[in-house]
Amino acid sequence: MQKKKRKNTSKTIWMGILLILVFYVLSTLYQQQQELKHLKQQEMSSLQEIEKIQQDIDILNQQLEVSNDDQYIEKIARQQLKMIGSNEIMVIDIGEQ
After folding, report:
1. 39 within a domain of the structure (yes/no)
2. How high is the pLDDT of residue 76?
3. Which residues of 69-91 are buried (b: 16+ CB within 10 A; e: fewer)?
4. Is residue 93 part of a domain?
5. For residue 27, is it within any domain?
6. Distance separating alpha carbons of residues 72 and 58, to the nearest angstrom
7. Alpha carbon distance 7, 23 (integer Å)
8. What is the distance between the alpha carbons of residues 31 and 76, in angstroms, rounded to a whole number?
9. Full-prediction pTM beyond 0.85?
């Protein structure tokens, strides 16, 4: 009888340890899956941000190419610096205030 009780107690202890081990492994796998999901979301967000920045770079490169054009330089000089050509006369309308 003593041996049978000892076997049952030993078996119960091993089953408890096994259950704890299985629970630990499953919870670890779940946490890793959640972390992987979070990292994939971060990756997608980063890729979208990279794509947006690349588009901004392309636009800036186009503006840089245009900025070396004489017509563009003249346009900016007239609009922002209020410059005129050597054979032009500036007319200022003081009637509208």
Report:
1. yes
2. 83
3. eeeeeeeeeeeeeeeeeeeeeee
4. no
5. yes
6. 19
7. 24
8. 58
9. no
pLDDT per residue over 55-89, tens digit each?
Answer: 999 999 998 888 888 888 888 887 888 777 778 77
Nearby residues of 66 by Cβ (< 8 Å), 6 or more positions away: 72
Establish if 20 belongs to a structural domain: yes
Amino acid at 18: L
Q: What percent of the chain has pLDDT over 90?
A: 51
Domain count, the chain: 1
Query: What are the residues whose beta carbons fall under 8 Å from the beta carbon of 78, sequence distance 6 or more?
Result: 84
Domain that includes residue 64, residue range: 2-80
CB distance 52 to 45 below 8 Å: no
DSSP state of 86: T
- Joined tokens for residue 50: 């990279």
Q: Which amino acid is at 79?
A: Q
